[in-house]
Structure formats: structure tokens, C-alpha cells
Design brief:
The protein is of the alpha/beta class. 45% of the residues lie in helices and 16% in strands. Helix 3 crosses helix 4. InterPro entries: Bact_Lucif_Oxidored, Lucif-like_OxRdatse_MSMEG_4141, Luciferase-like_dom, Luciferase-like_sf.
């Protein structure tokens, strides 16, 4: 059984999630909440969110293959499925070369990890894979429910759909800041993007999309920053989010930056009025 993710979900790092935010987003009508920043193999952060909500889907985006052993993750999956059937999707990924000391044979590591999840009887339709480049996108289509691209644009979504074909999940993440002043919005975006633009898997993907070293340097060009972090009114941001659907997405994952915890809810409420 595939998990019903709805049209829009919300992504935040594990430490930003809490029962109040999760329950508030469920009440607003978002279909899924996504736990980032390499949640641990016991998936306790996910368990808290499932227990504090009633029907919204909860996913990981992503469990890091280098830091979370597959057999333990599989056990955790079955525990969550037993307690909250049909609501959890396991997103896994290879992480970043710059942050992992033993980062070697990444593609083979992904394959071996998926093999271990098979051995742990985690259903293919209940797991997804972080993927940017064509080779891993094809693997996501073949071995999981689909792909969870992060730090991307509608142009990448269009290319990813062409690579993966129809009938598999494509759920890109899109950052937003609810701010109509261009300079204030770009300043907040650059502060948030600074660490991401130091990671080669993201910068290599941006270059495949036609961005240059000059676009990536010095915090990012206006062109790059505006593509990676939508800003403006809720209605203007909604146009950018819906562009992913026009490009072939099945589910779009929103990350609002610039606020914390329950303070995020008013922004998500404003977006819900035009999206849901």
C-alpha cells in the first residue's frame, strides 16, 4: 500500500519539529510532514510526530545511509507501521561527501542499502530515495516508490520526470520566504543557502541545470537565489510551487525559512489559503 501524501507537504530539520507544529499543519490540510537532517535509525523523532497527529503522512527526508544501519532502520519501520499503519514513508539517501569521512563507492552503497531494506522486508512502495543526478533517479524509479530531490527547481523536476518516466513518485523540495521586499528576502535566503552551496552534490546538480560558478559564488547570484528560494506574497509563491506540478511533480515539499517552531504556522496558513 502506497502512502497518500496529498498535494503539498512541509519539510523541516528534526529539531524544528514538534507536536504543535505537526498538528497545526495537519489541521491546515497539508498532506505530509517530512523530517530532515539525518534522523536516527530508531526513528523516535518520527514516532513523536505520528503520535501527535491523526492522519497526516510522515516521512524521512532523509535517513543517512552512512549513519543509520539498515537493519535497525527496517526494524524501526515495522514498529511505526504496527503502531500507525499506512502513514509512514521511509526516505533514505547517501548524504554529502564533505560531511562523511568514509564516503566511498556511493552508488554501490545505495544499492547495498536498498538490498538490506529488502532483507528487512521494507516494501518498495513505502520507501523513497534522495536523488538528483540521472543515475540515482533511475535507481529510485527502479528500486523505490520514487525520488525526493532537495534544493532543486522546476527545471530539475522536468528533467527528473523525463529520466524516471511515469508512474513513480517525484516529490521535490522547494524553499520559500514570505517576504515581498526583494533584498530582505534574498538576504534571508543567502544566509540559509550558505552551507548548501558548499556541498558538491548540490553544486554539481545546479551546474547540470545551467548555473555557473559565478552564480554559485559569493552567496549565490540573484538568479540562483530566486530560483532556490521563492519569495513574495503567498499567491506569488504559489505560482512557483505549482510550476513543479506543471513540470511533472506528484507532491511538492515546502520549506519555509526565517522562523522557528509554531511561529511557522501563520506563514503556512497563508500558503494553505491559496494552495489547499
Amino acid at each position: 500500500m502506497a502512502v497518500d501524501l496529498g498535494r503539498f507537504g512541509v519539510w523541516h530539520q528534526a529539531q524544528k519539529w514538534g507536536p504543535e507544529l505537526a498538528a497545526g499543519l495537519e489541521q491546515l490540510g497539508y498532506g505530509a510532514i517530512w523530517v530532515g537532517a539525518s534522523p536516527s535509525a530508531d526513528l523516535r523523532d518520527v514516532e513523536v510526530l505520528l503520535a501527535s497527529t491523526k492522519s497526516v503522512a510522515v516521512g524521512t527526508s532523509i535517513v543517512n545511509m552512512w549513519t543509520a544501519e539498515a537493519a535497525e532502520v527496517a526494524e524501526s519501520y515495522h514498529r511505526l507501521e504496527g503502531d500507525h499503519p499506512g502513514r509512514f514513508i521511509l526516505g533514505v539517501g547517501i548524504g554529502h561527501r564533505e560531511r562523511i569521512g568514509e564516503y566511498k563507492s556511493p552508488y554501490e552503497t545505495i544499492v547495498d542499502y536498498l538490498d538490506a531494506l529488502d532483507e528487512g522486508k521494507v516494501p518498495v512502495e513505502r520507501r523513497a530515495l534522495a536523488a538528483l543526478g540521472p543515475r540515482v533517479l533511475r535507481l529510485a524509479a527502479a528500486r523505490t516508490a520514487g525520488a525526493l530531490p532537495y534544493l532543486t527547481t522546476p527545471e530539475h523536476t522536468r528533467e527528473a520526470r523525463a529520466v524516471m518516466g511515469a508512474g513513480v513518485l517525484l516529490a521535490p523540495e522547494q524553499k520559500v520566504v514570505l517576504e515581498i521586499d526583494d533584498e530582505i528576502a534574498r538576504s534571508a535566503a543567502r544566509d540559509y543557502l550558505a552551507s548548501y552551496l558548499q556541498l558538491s552534490n548540490y553544486t554539481n546538480n545546479l551546474k547540470r541545470l545551467g548555473y555557473t560558478d559565478e552564480d554559485i559564488a559569493d552567496g549565490g547570484s540573484d538568479r540562483l537565489v530566486d530560483a532556490l528560494v521563492l519569495h513574495g506574497t503567498a499567491a506569488e509563491i504559489a505560482e512557483g510551487l505549482n510550476a513543479h506540478f506543471e513540470a511533472g511533480a506528484d507532491h511538492v515539499v515546502i520549506q519555509q525559512i526565517g522562523k522557528e517552531g509554531p511561529d511557522l504556522l501563520p506563514g503556512y496558513e497563508a500558503l494553505a489559503t491559496v494552495l489547499l
